[in-house]
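Please, structure for the following, as C-alpha cells.
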Amino acid sequence: MKVLHPIAKLAILLALLSAAASAEILKIVVDDTIQPITAEYIQRAVNEAAREHATALLIELRTPGGLVDSTRDIISSITNSAVPVIIYVTPSGARAASAGFFILESADVAAMAPGSNTGAAHPVTLGSTPDKVMAEKIENDSAALMRSVVSKRGRNVEVAESAVRQSKSWSDAEALQLHLIDLVAPSESDLLKQLNGRTIKRFNGSTEVLHTTGQTVRELPMTLKQQILSYLMDPNVSFILLAIGLLALYFEFTHPGVVVPGVIGFFFVVLAIFALNILPVRYAALGLILLAFVFFALEAKFATHGVLAAGGVAALTFGALLLVDGPIPQMRVHLSTALAVSIPLGAITTFLMAIALRARRHKVTTGLEGLVGEIGTARTPLTPEGKIFVHGELWNAVADTSIDPGEQVRVVAVDGLTIRVKAMKASVVSPR
C-alpha cells in the first residue's frame, strides 16, 4: 500500500479545510408573480450554487402565483439542482399561493414562517372559459404534476392534490401537521439551526446530510437586466409605457418635425412591446387600443360633441383591461390604471389633433405668404409694374391692369420679391 508523503497529506488537509471554510449558503428572494424573469433568476441561482459548490440554495418565497409554463421551468431547475434547495415562505403574513405552492412542494426542504399560508393551486385558464372536457384536461395535467413532485419528496400526495382540484389552502401549522412542509421556523437563523444535521432525500432518490451551522449566507441579487425586465413585467407598467409611447408618436404625427416626441415615443413603444412579448397578450386588445386613437382623431376632425372621444376612452379602457391575459389579478392591468390613463389620454390626443387641424386651416400670417390677401396703396402708376405700400413696407408690384397712384390694391400672390396685385373694386373700398 502506497503511503502519502507528509507534505502531500498536509496539502490535502489544507485543501479540505479551505473548501470547508469557503462553503456557504446561497440565498435569493422571490417576491413577485411567477413569470419568465423569475424562472431565469432561479435558474441562474441554481447554476451559481452548483458552480461554487454551495452547501445549499435558500429561496425566500412570497408570491400570489403566476404562469404555468414559468412554474414548470422553475420546478425543473429545482429538481435538477446539484445542491439542495430550501424554500422558505417568510415573513409572517407571506404566502406561496397557486404556482407558489407547486414551487414550495418541489423543494428538497419546504419551510414556512409562523403566520404564513400556502395552497389554492387550482389552474386558472387564459382567455375564454374552456369547455368541460378541456377544463378537466387542464386540471388533470396540473394534478399529475403535483403528484409527481410531492411523491418524490415523500410528502402527502392526497392532500397536496386537493389544492389543485379543490383550491384548498393551509396555514403554516396545518401544512406541517398534514406533512405538506418539513418544518416551521420563525427566522432564517432558526431555520438553519433546525436543518443542521438533517438528512434529506434528493429528487433522484439519494440522501444527503445538511451542515448549515456556521455557514455564511450570501444573497445573490438580480442582475440589472433582470431587475429592469422584472419591473417591466408588471402589466400596469407595460400598459403605461405603451400609452405614453403612442401619445408621443401621436404628437409627432400631428406636429411633424419636432423629432424629440417621436424618438421618445418609439423608445417607449419598443420597451412595452418587448415586455408584452413575454407576457400572455391578447392581440385583439391591441386592436382596441389602436382603434381608440382613431376615434380621438375623428373626434377632433368632425367634432361629434364628445361621442367619438367617449368611444375612444371606452375602447382604450377595455383594451387595457383585456391586454394581458394573466391567470391571477396581479398579472392583469387594474381598472384604476386603465381609467387613470385612458381619460387623460383621450383629452390630450383630441386636443392635439384639434390644434393641428385648426393650424392647417388657418391662413398663413407670417413671412412672404402672409402678404396674400393684404390691402395696400399704389405709390406709383402700375403700368403694369410699379411700387405699392403694404404691410408697412414699399414693394415692387405687378398688376393685371393699369392702376393710378393712390388707388387701393389687394395682394393676390408673391413671386420672389415682387408681388402681384389687383385693383380693389369700388364696392369694397372703405370710405374715407
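The chain is about 50% helix and 20% strand. The longest helix spans residues 335-361.
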